[in-house]
Design goal:
Chain A: It is a multi-pass membrane protein. The complex is a heterodimer of chains A (617) and B (107). With 617 residues, chain A is an all-alpha fold. Chain A contains 21 helices and four strands. In chain B, helix 1 packs antiparallel against helix 2. The chains are: A mainly alpha (617), B mainly alpha (107).
């Protein structure tokens, strides 16, 4: 296998390899490519929004198109960029960190990715087919149920399909972490990133069903004539808001917790210290997840739930500041007295602390009900959630990419370009969003396509747009760095950062079976334990033996492709009877592929002991 | 493992355990059938007011679910901590949601 891997292969062979792969490292690549593509789309949409708002009463885009761009920016960034990029990092690092050869269900891992990709493609096909969804990323009923055209239908089908993929991915990670940890890797020895992956997966498991139900109800209202959200026929439009936010609030923790985990790993690696308060960090993560399910109504303070309900949800929300504060202080204490290396990964991590703390502080502000009546639906809220999502998740993803690039692609990202990208993006980010707090306080409502001149909003919006351009330049430099590194970047050694956790005990990039022999874990920061005792590499927990590996399969791709086709059938059967053809063909492909999967025995293959011995260490 | 490798006999301890396990399965099975019959009888004969029937049926249902999980699906046995944690976590999340919506609607 490894001999074949070193030979040059044609484009077709590589493509087929990626279409059929079930290897968690290649699926990580796919998630990063897919997420990166949608990140660019969402970024372009963001730029159009900012250009439209560069001056009062601008007419760069029309009002309707602005609604579509705004909706697609939010939806794309949350569901199709941030989440897949995080899932990509989880796929890349988590199995290595816990000493596993792959995830528990490699086939499902692949299925999860392809469902996400085809769901995202359906959503974006709407641009070419008569207009994108335009009811906001939250798609509140009755705006979403009455939105003309098929835009919102694409939203429903696209998110339903990619949501199924995320749910599959979450369950897969759960089973992997529970069952496949290396000998000696107890729960309380897992690196923080594996812990947050675990907790995030639990959140996915419990939160996504609420979205699934909500989307089904919306789908039935829009496509099959039901009236769940239609007040005129005895429905209740508030149900959508509840269902959406019962999912939506855990969702923001799904976005931030993996970032918390990887920052913890980065801080302890580059401060050369054991993570301060490891146990407290783990329990703070669990507490955030626990509280995350009882705060959803703080998105709905102005709906009119009544003072009692509002107060309960306000207090629960403010309580989340406690575990988050524990984390911030633990990171600072980890840095305290450490032997700190500042490189690109560390810069993103250091930039995250003040940025996220500002976002957290405004979070407590909007959690206060009385104040929220002022903040609600203004740019103050926009500034708040960009501070936590960009300052937390996006900084986290970029830090993680710089940190794990050697494991992902076997090369080190250019440090100089990385630092330039950080400083430009960091400056641009604060320029864009800090001023938006004040725009919001001055009364600028969110989601409006124009604002009037001489209301004190002109300069602020101009500054914000300039900042957005700086962010775009930062991102472009990052992508240039990626290409530059791929062409002439230096080959990465196995352990470029003097790492502490198990992934740095593998080759860069790791062999497709990860560990020749499963390592024996003797403490937290498994590799560091061996380093401090002068050994420097892991003790194997088993003799060298045959390794059982799963076969690749095109079926996950076919299943997702079937759903993709069926999605169009579902959308267009309202207007045209021919749409039943794609509907039935698509479902046929899906069910046929499932049948093949069920009937065909696939026992995988073995890498023999002899083959492993032949490979040099 | 070490002793008695040549014999196909199940050791007496294991045998007794299996027997006890079978007893438990049969008892819970009988109880579940009984509960189902009780539920049907209560509703069919109309012997209770609606106010009482609904909580009684709910309690019977909860006990049956517990039997199902703990006896038939072996959650009482060792090594089921994680599934139990996940199930209770899910129940907790669902209860919170219901409690939240209840508070919003009626308080």
């Amino acid at each position: 296998m490894s001999i074949a891997a070193t030979q040059k292969r044609g484009f077709g062979a590589v493509l087929w390899d990626y279409l059929t792969t079930v290897d968690h490292k290649k699926i990580a690549h796919l998630y990063l490519f897919g997420g990166g593509f949608f990140f660019i789309l969402g970024g372009l949409e963001a730029m159009i929004i900012r250009i439209q708002l560069i001056k009062p009463e601008n007419d760069f885009v029309s009002a309707g198109l602005y609604n579509e761009i705004l909706t697609m920016h939010g939806t794309t960034m949350i569901f199709l960029a941030a989440m897949p990029l995080l899932l990509g990092l989880m796929n890349a690092a988590m199995p290595l960190q816990i000493g596993a050869r792959d995830v528990a269900f490699p086939f499902l891992n692949s299925l999860g990715f392809w469902l996400f990709l085809f769901g995202g493609l359906i959503l974006n096909c709407s641009w070419l087919l008569g207009g994108a969804p335009d009811a906001g990323w939250t798609s509140y009923a009755p705006l979403s149920t009455t939105s003309p055209g098929h835009g919102v239908d694409f939203y429903v089908l696209g998110l339903q399909i990619s949501g199924a993929g995320t749910l599959i991915g979450g369950i897969n990670f759960l089973v992997t972490i529970i069952n496949m940890r290396a000998p000696g890797m107890t729960y309380m020895r897992m690196p923080l990133f594996s812990w947050t992956t675990f907790i995030t997966s639990i959140l996915i498991l419990f939160a996504f069903p609420a979205l699934t139900i909500g989307l089904f109800l919306l789908m039935f209202d829009r496509l099959f004539g039901s009236a769940f959200f239609d007040v005129g026929l005895g429905g209740n439009s508030i149900i959508w808001e509840h269902l959406f936010w019962i999912f939506g609030h855990p969702e923001v923790y799904i976005l931030i917790l993996p970032a918390f985990g990887l920052f913890s790993d980065i801080f302890s690696t580059f401060a050369k210290k054991r993570l301060f308060g490891y146990t407290a960090m783990v329990f703070a993560t669990i507490l955030i997840a626990f509280l995350g399910f009882m705060v959803w109504a703080h998105h709905m303070f102005t709906v009119g739930l009544g003072p009692v309900a509002n107060s309960i949800f306000a207090i629960a929300t403010m309580a989340i500041a406690v575990p988050t504060g524990i984390k911030i202080f633990n990171w600072l204490a980890t840095l305290w007295g450490g032997s700190i290396t500042i490189n690109s990964a560390m810069l993103w991590a250091l930039g995250f602390i003040p940025t996220f703390t500002i976002g957290g502080m405004t979070g407590v502000m909007v959690a206060s009900v009385v104040a929220d009546y002022q903040y609600h639906d203004t740019y103050f809220v926009v500034a708040h959630f960009h501070y936590v999502i960009v300052g937390g998740t996006v900084f986290g993803i970029l830090a993680g990419l710089h940190y794990w690039w050697p494991k992902l692609f076997g090369r080190i990202l250019n440090e100089k370009l990385g630092k330039i990208a950080f400083w430009i993006f960091f400056t641009g980010f604060h320029l864009t969003f800090f001023i938006q707090h004040f725009l919001g306080l001055m009364g600028m409502p969110r989601r409006y396509w124009v604002f009037l001149e001489d209301q004190g909003l002109d300069t602020g919006n101009l500054i914000s747009t300039i900042g957005a351009f700086l962010m775009a330049i930062g991102v472009i430099i990052f992508f240039y760095n990626v290409v530059y590194t791929a062409v002439k970047g230096e080959k990465a050694p196995d352990d470029p950062w003097d790492g502490r956790t198990l992934e740095w005990a593998t080759a860069s990039p790791p062999a497709h079976y990860n560990f020749k022999q499963t390592p024996l874990v003797r403490g937290l920061d498994a590799l560091w334990v061996e380093k401090t005792e002068g050994k420097g590499k892991m003790t194997p927990a088993e003799p060298l033996g045959d390794i059982h590996m799963p076969n690749g399969s095109i079926l996950p791709f076919m299943m997702s492709f079937g759903l993709f086709i069926a999605g169009f059938g579902f959308i267009y059967q309202v207007n045209y009877t021919w749409a039943y053809i794609p509907l039935f063909v698509g479902m046929g492909i899906l069910l046929g592929s499932m049948l093949i999967r069920s009937l065909k025995d696939d026992h995988g293959y073995h890498i023999t002991k002899e083959e492993l011995e032949r490979e040099a260490d | 493992m070490a002793e008695n490798t040549n014999s196909n006999e199940v050791n007496p301890y294991q045998k007794r355990k299996n027997k006890l396990e079978m007893q438990k399965q049969l008892i819970t099975f009988a109880l579940m059938i009984l509960f189902t019959i009780i539920a049907f009888v209560i509703v069919a004969t109309g012997m209770m007011q609606k106010m009482f029937v609904i909580p009684v049926l709910l309690i019977l249902a909860i006990i049956q679910v517990a039997f199902q999980f703990y006896y038939f699906m072996h959650m009482k046995d060792k090594g089921h901590d994680m599934p139990a944690l996940m199930i209770y976590g899910g129940i907790w999340a669902a209860l919170l949601t219901l409690a939240g919506l209840g508070v919003i609607t009626w308080w």
